[in-house]
């Protein structure tokens, strides 16, 4: 990965982080909740427009960091405010903004109390997530990583829709705190290693990613750092067996939280951004173990999803299979696998977000997403049914959708690296088709058995617009994945090149 940077004449990435924070503060002083909702909507729409501008201004196929901003932060320990984007992160800037806007749309009519607090929490969650994707200093990244905990916990505990929402929120917080501790240890060890390299003329304490990439790391320390990062990112993703917080969070939390948790795979991004480039030898030596966890996640998630009686719980285990497949792609440690994983994360961000949006709409209308409470929806809500079918087919990689080129690249990369992993992952893909089609038949086809289903309202205009936007993205990426692959190509190749080149300290 190149340390070359292209600075930005205007701090656009900082604006993307601070705009939601400023809007969250503004909500507290406006006179009415209606005005607060309008401010939140305007801020999220502006955030999406700015993020789209960043994507359009990005120069594709380059490995260098673009839109970079760097300011001294805590000089005594070498911490800097350093943000920037490259091919590994640029796609997730507009996707984060879109996810936040859709989370707001999904909750527009369902929040009955403390609307200002809900909107502020959603905006702060957007700001923290955006900060994760733009951070190039490890301490800054950790700050945003931890900052996600507070608004997510509040959204689940206060505005959750299930009777066990307090327990689900506590479980989420416990997992995130336990998962973050090893990451902090890894960051500290890397900073100390940089300080100890002073004798070799490297410098003092630093937590800046480009600087750390140039500091030799002994193989033993690499192993410790990689395991610590891998544990933290496996919990966040989540991978089996660290996944038990996710079903409760999706079932008990509001639709907005579900959209964030299933749509944005921050743990997979963490592997690509930090764990692999900072410990490339350890990643090459132990990557098979993480890939094996990915395979187990695919098979376990698929088998459990087959037995789920609830659509939202099914989404949780479907998310486990998606994370597992992306992990297999990442730890193929070749360009095809890495690009496939990035494209798969984009596919999940649109398809799983759409499924979470529609599942939340069903819960708001019917008070339940149990499959036994549904049935016959296709006749009475045809637009909702068609959108759900398209999003689900994209999730299982049907040709013509955004899931197909993503999964194809992942399997090509996996077969090149570890054929046995690819073969097992392919079995998981078959399970994915089985659990989705089975649940779709039970929920949407056949005769309606409940009066509430017969009287259900189809997609409202806002919901229909959101579904149409996601459907367009799914079909466009499925037909023309080339532009996205061109954007990620330079950074993916640079990452693979770093893995293949053994540093002097490891020889």
Task: Explain what you see.
Helix content is 71%, strand content 4%. The chain is mostly helical and 507 residues long. The protein has a domain at 279-502. It has a 3-stranded mixed β-sheet with strand order 1-2-3. A hairpin with a 4-residue loop joins β2 (65-74) and β3 (79-85). It is globular and about 75 Å long.
Q: What's the layout of helices and strands?
A:
Layout: E1 5-7, H1 12-26, H2 33-57, E2 65-74, E3 79-85, H3 92-106, H4 115-134, H5 138-147, H6 149-159, H7 165-196, H8 209-213, H9 219-236, H10 245-252, H11 255-263, H12 266-278, H13 280-306, H14 311-330, H15 335-366, H16 377-380, H17 382-395, H18 403-417, H19 419-444, H20 451-454, H21 461-479, H22 482-500
Parallel strand pairs: 1-2
Antiparallel strand pairs: 2-3
Helix pairs in contact: 1-2, 1-4, 2-3, 2-4, 3-4, 3-11, 3-15, 4-5, 4-6, 5-7, 6-7, 7-9, 7-10, 9-12, 9-13, 10-11, 10-14, 11-15, 12-13, 13-14, 13-19, 14-15, 14-18, 14-19, 15-17, 15-18, 15-21, 15-22, 17-19, 17-21, 18-19
Q: Helicity, in percent?
A: over 70%
Number of helices: 22
Query: Secondary-structure element order, as H and E?
Result: EHHEEHHHHHHHHHHHHHHHHHHHH
Strand content: under 5%
Strand order of the largest sheet: 1-2-3
Shape: globular
**How many DSSP E strands?**
3
Radius of gyration, in angstroms, nearest whole number: 22 Å
Q: Please, what is the average pLDDT?
A: 89
* N-C termini distance: 20 Å
Structure summary:
With 507 residues, the chain is mainly α. The protein contains 22 helices and 3 strands.
List keywords for this structure.
3-stranded mixed β-sheet, mainly alpha, globular, 4% strand, single chain, 507 residues, 22 helices
